[in-house]
Amino acid sequence: MIAKCYESWLLEMWNGDFGLAHDLVTPDFVGHWPDLDVHGAAELIRILEQGHAPFEDVRVTLDVGPIVQGDLVAARWTFAALFRRRHVSFSGHDILRAAGDGRFAEYWVVSDALGLERQLV
Predict the structure, then answer these.
(1) Residue 37, class by beta-carbon neighbours within 10 Å (0-12 exposed, 13-18 middle, 19+ buried)?
(2) What pTM was computed for the model?
(3) pLDDT digits (tens, 9 = 90+) for 2-28
(4) Cis peptide before 34, with omega less than 30 degrees from 0?
(5) Average pLDDT of the chain?
(6) In this structure, what are the phi and psi dihedrals at residue 54, rounded to the nearest 5 degrees?
(7) What is the four-CA torsion angle of 106, 82, 58, 25, rounded to 10 degrees?
(8) What share of the chain is helix, strand, coil (3-state, %, to 5)?
(9) In CATH terms, is domain 2-120 a member of 3.10.450.50?
(10) Contact 102, 4 (CB under 8 A)
């Protein structure tokens, strides 16, 4: 069940169906980015919208996983899009902790943001 929820998280929500956040995360959800903590579905949706805004034709793909161990799931993904008519991409890793109801309560992400920044200049 956790693997299926992760596939919805990555392949549907991160590809643009942001409203799924309300179904996929708990009310007390905390997402941990290297420089930011995000609380709840509404903040998560806002971060997703901001992250997609500069890009066109966003495609997020699953590269490895999901790998499930107990209430944790991990995976590697790639984000690809057009930025000012140029193709850009970067990869990252997710770890999520599921609550008892199967929704995600906590999220950690590490990605090659520096590599993406280099492509945007």
Answers:
(1) exposed
(2) 0.88
(3) 889 999 999 999 999 999 999 999 999
(4) no
(5) 94
(6) -75, -5
(7) 20
(8) 35, 50, 15
(9) yes
(10) no
